[in-house]
Amino acid sequence: MEHIKNALYIVSYVLMVAALLIVSVFFRQILASVLLIFLVILPFISLYAGSYGARRLSVSASLPSGTVDEGDEFRIRLKIRNTCAVPMLRCILEYTFCNMYRQDDRSFSITLPGESFANDTYDVCFKTGMPGVFTFDADHLLVSDPLHFHTFRIKNEIHIRCYIMPRVIPIPYVPLVMYEGESADELISENGELTRDIRQLREYRAGDRLKDIHWKASAQKGELITKEYERSTDLLYLLLPEVKKGAEEKVLRRYYSLGKAMVEASMGFVCAVFDPSDKSFEELKVSDADSLNDSICRIMDLGSSSDDVYANYMYQNPECTGVIRICPEEIINT
Amino acid sequence: MSLQTDPHPGFMGRRELGKRAAQLTERGVCEGDILKERLPRKYVSVLLRGLLIFLASYGTVWGLVSSFDLAYDPVKVFFGILVLSVFSASIYYNRLTFYVGYVIMFLTFFVYSVTRYSYINSGFQAIINEINEHYVDYFSLPALRVSQEIIADRNLTVPIACIFIGWVYCIMLNVTISSYMNPALTFVITFLPLQAAFYIDIMPPYLCMMMLIMCYVSVLVLSRAGYYALPYRYKKYVLFSRRRRKKGFEDSYILSAKGMLSVFWVSLAISLAFYVVATAVFGDSFSTKYVSNKLKNKMDDYVEIIVMNGITSVFNRYDAKGGLARGRLGGIGSVTPDYDTDLEVTYVPDSTDTVYLRAFVGDTYTIDRFSEADDPNYSIVNEPFHPDEDVREMEIFNIDADEGYYYLPYHTFEADGDMDGASHVTYVPVHEEDDYPIDDDEMYPYSEYVFEHYTQVPESLIPVLDDVVDKGDLITDKRGNEGMLDCCYRLQKYFAENYRYSLQPGRTPMGSDVVEYFLTSQDRGYCMHYASASTLILRYLGIPARYCEGYVITASSLSQGELVSEEGGEKKVKVQLTDAAAHAWVEVYMINYGWVPYEMTPPSFGDEEYADMGSLMSILSGLFTSTSRQEDGDTAEESIAAGTGEMFSRFGKSVAFLIKPVGFSIAALILILIMRPLALSLYSYLKVLFSLRKGDYSDAYLRRYRSYSSRLLKLKAISTVNADPLIIADALGGCIKDEKDLEKISRIAENARRAAYSREGIGEYEYKTSCPDMRHIAAEVKKNMSHR
Questions:
Q1: Which residue in B174, B331, B746, B787 is deepest, having the highest Cβ count within 10 Å?
Q2: What are residue B395's DSSP bridge partners?
Q3: ipTM value
Q4: Cβ-based neighbours of A56, under 8 Å, separated by 6 or more
């Protein structure tokens, strides 16, 4: 439709020139001649001004800092800048946006006014409905000359990625099993060495291992004192989010809700993230809110697949038990 | 920067909101509203629209009234139309003003029209009368139609009529500009009335043309920019209109007062350029230099008729398709018969001689016209001069010929029937060799009248006729009928040798007499020209002559006739006479013989083509084979296209008048292109100086930095000037290798950032150290880029 409109516009312009030409030649109307000359010259001036102005026009975009939570509205700030006096009244930014879990090939456009020496800011609002990675991409800016005879295509790349954090949902009580693939005592420290460092001595709590009781201290204090090893209790659980195509948001919400509850209860855990590209697993240690967010972002980055994630994991780690599977519909202890 | 906080989804409507919700569920994200720091300034937009309407309406009214020298009160009209324009535009401010405003406008318009009816009507008639007067002067028309002005005081009536016309324009332009922003309609509405002035080479004041051009350019640009959305249609906070596309949506900015204003300035610059070109090229001289052409001539015909007889006369006008002209000789540039049958004649021909069916007989000649003979002593029927033998009958059926006449052969005895239907005629065919003298004594009183009455010629034509008589050597020693015939013969010969037959001789220029122009300049024509000129020449020589119109039955048309019956060797033939058989001839009064038809028109030799005026080629051919309107007092040109070279030469002459304005415009453009960088540099330099004088080193530095980055952009070292200075500095790393230079580049960028973003800006030291660095880096980049 736009092309037809443009064609009609150009045809009507040419007809107007032809009419003035006839009036000039046959009727010798001087004014018509002057108008004719103007109408012939104007497109060239307009095109020149358009190409001059187009090079001095840009649109940049930025995302306000901070994370975006699912269900929130956030804004992308577009800034149009015209450093010359030529009013570029039709600057069309064609863009696409989507949640990466729901690929969307639709293209959107926004016509912005590149007024003379414009330096204006516009906020484009977006509403989120599910967690994931939000992307906003634009490659070109289409700028028409003042008389709109030609549209210049200027390279104006904008790429924005934004993580949308899942919302917390109520999790039914699930007795969590410990991961038994490796002993807490044999865990490798951050320096790559075996660690048996004792973080602290504390009173015995139900569930502590008997072998961790510090008998000497217990005798001295007159009550049971147990040894708490460096990170030993943080690394007791392994969560395996099974991010399946079409149900990503459910898995993310469950994982995030459970993870948040565990972090708040100071229960660190390991998150095994499946990479569909090479079917490998990446193990992320989560002990606080930041690492939880990082793990969520990593899950989102790696995307979803229709593979059986648990089967893959068990195939690669046949000895292990005690994996907490985060499935779309439930949390399963194995 | 504080932006709107509430996205106001309400304007989307339920349907749109439903779609958004579905999109949100399905795709996880949906686009919401688009917000801006400031809401659009509706009142500025409304005022600008009002200004556009004012420019167009006042420009038209002022142009029209000034062109025709009408006295009016410019202050009253100016402010009257200004108020009306702004009021019209403000109707579209919001929904309330829209409905209430239109009611108020039409109500007040009605009241004004009714209460001021007499004034408006008189003022309007005054304008029409003035226009008519100018047209009459321009075309040298004989009569002036004057409409009655009830109130004679034009100082009172014309301003009121002007405000009324301006009001009508405000209403119409409010629709074309405020509602639709339609450049074509705006142009047609405002430019067509001014054609009344342009057509007769009157140039309205340049300032009024500037106003109109400003309006046209603004409307043209705005119509395509999408800035003309009516504020009343959208809620206050809506900035963008959303349109569904095949895939996705399109959001367009609907209103930008600043954008409208910038368009306004651009259109002002263009109209100023128009003013400069128009005044520099044409100045005050607006004289038209014609090479006559068919299109213009045809148009002139209609215009003259409208001026003389009113607009309704166009639809019932004498045309030049063939048939009778009733003695009206002017205003015909060409004849294009339609070949429809006008008369159907059934008779028994006794020879193949031409039979003249006479209808109109011309009497006195005034400019371009023979009055119809009203001769009480000589009826066309019962003509006395004829031999009393061989009486024949003729049936004439008028199909499409002029219904005001009988079409009768010479020497008719009796004629009965209707002019518009069949008529029965009894006549005596007379041939050249027949000798049927009637004793002139019987007709003496009439002969005396004839010799006195039919030898008068207009005094203004005497020099021309005298000249022709000399050139043609028409004076003979012979006397009586023999002398008359000798003169006729000499004249016929003169015409045959010096004039050509043409059905497209071109229109007579304004102010010239058709016979005079034919004899002196035109040198070609058809029967009407020859018959009228012959009549006057013969009259000038003292030979009684009359101009006649009618139809002729030639041997050619006779041969195409249909045989009706054959009795006793006499064949009765039915002949169809088309409008091409219409003819004009001269008749000479011969002593003892009466009025005798004489053929002065030279033969066409069949090379005459009837051009169809409606065809494009015919119209265009006017450029190549145009007739001979005089140019700057030169003698008329011979205008037969004899070959491509000559055709193009003529075309060149036709468009030669464009050379000056085109040349001037191109020269001006070249000058602007040369001067533009110099002017911009000067402007920038002055701004820097001004900033330095104020002590604003940051502003001065940023201006210098902008020039520096523009220069780099020109050298293609960077892709945009709008990027962050650090990004520009990074981009330059590719073409500068020297460490010191790289340091300088970083320093320049850092200073630019400080000047732009930091509160304290930069000081004199930074300015003075970095500015030479910029020059140095630009030179280095240029050197390196040229090496590449």
A1: B174
A2: B346, B424
A3: 0.72
A4: A82, A83, A84, B721, B722
Angstrom distance (rounded) from CA B693 to CA B705: 18
Cβ within 8 Å, pair B274-A87: no
- Cβ atoms of A328 and A189 closer than 8 Å: no
Residue A158, SS3?
strand
B43 to chain A, any CB pair closer than 8 A? The answer is no
Provide the 8-state DSSP code for A144: E
The amino acid at residue B278 is A
What torsion, rounded to 10 degrees, do the Cα atoms B57, B58, B59, B62 define? 130
Rounded Cα distance, A127 and A27, in Å: 63
How many interchain CB pairs under 8 A, A with B? 213
Q: Residue A231 half-sphere exposure, CB side, CA atoms within 13 Å?
A: 17
Closest partner residue to A115 (CB to CB) among B245, B256, B299 is B256
Q: How far is it, in rounded angstroms, from Cα A74 to Cα A128?
A: 8
In the numeric block, which tokens belong to residue A202?
Answer: 């504390």
In this complex, do A90 and B722 lie within 8 Å of one another by their Cβ atoms?
Answer: no
Q: Which two tokens stand for residue B405?
A: 């006449």
Range list of H helices, chain A: 2-27, 30-54, 215-221, 248-264, 289-302, 309-316
β-strand pairing of B392-398 with B582-590: unpaired
Cα dist from B109 to A284, B102, B163, B279, B477, whole Å? 80, 10, 11, 39, 79
A304 touching B (Cβ < 8 Å): no
Scored b (16 or more CB within 10 A) or e, B375-414 reads: beebebeebebbeeeeebebbbbbeebbeebbbbbbbbbe
Specify the pTM. 0.59
Q: Which two tokens stand for residue B73?
A: 């009160």
B557: nearest Cα among B335, B408, B343: B343
- Residue bearing tokens 């295509």: A153
Concatenate the DSSP letters of all residues of B346-374 into one string. Answer: EE--SSSS-EEEEEEEEEEEETTEEEEP-
Contact between A113 and B256 using a beta-carbon 8 Å cutoff:
yes
Give B72→chain A minimum CA distance, Å: 25
A153 touches chain B (CB under 8 A): no
- Give the CA dihedral B722, B726, B727, B730, nearest 10 degrees: 140
Tokens representing residue B142 in the block? 């004989």
* Sign of the CA dihedral running B196, B199, B201, B204: positive
| Contact predicate A321/A309, CB 8 Å | no
Q: What is the pLDDT along chain A (334 residues), one digit of tens a residue?
A: 667 777 877 888 888 888 888 777 776 666 677 778 778 888 888 888 888 888 888 888 888 766 788 888 888 888 888 888 888 888 999 999 988 888 877 888 888 888 888 888 888 888 888 898 999 999 889 998 888 888 888 888 888 888 999 988 888 777 776 655 444 444 444 444 445 567 778 888 776 777 778 888 899 888 888 887 765 444 468 889 998 888 888 899 999 999 998 888 888 888 999 998 888 888 888 888 889 999 999 999 888 888 888 888 888 887 777 788 898 888 887 7
**How many residues in chain B?**
788
Nearest to A87 among B198, B266, B286 (CB): B266
Count CB-CB contacts under 10 A for residue A52. 15
In this structure, the strands spanning B29-36 and A331-333 are unpaired
The whole-angstrom separation of Cα B181 and Cα B226 is 9
Per DSSP, the residues of B191-214 read: HHHHHHHHTTTPPPPHHHHHHHHH
Q: What is the CA radius of gyration of chain B?
A: 40
CB proximity under 8 Å: A 58-97 to B: 58, 60, 73, 75, 81, 83, 85, 87, 89-90, 97
Q: Cα separation of B113 and B119, whole Å?
A: 9
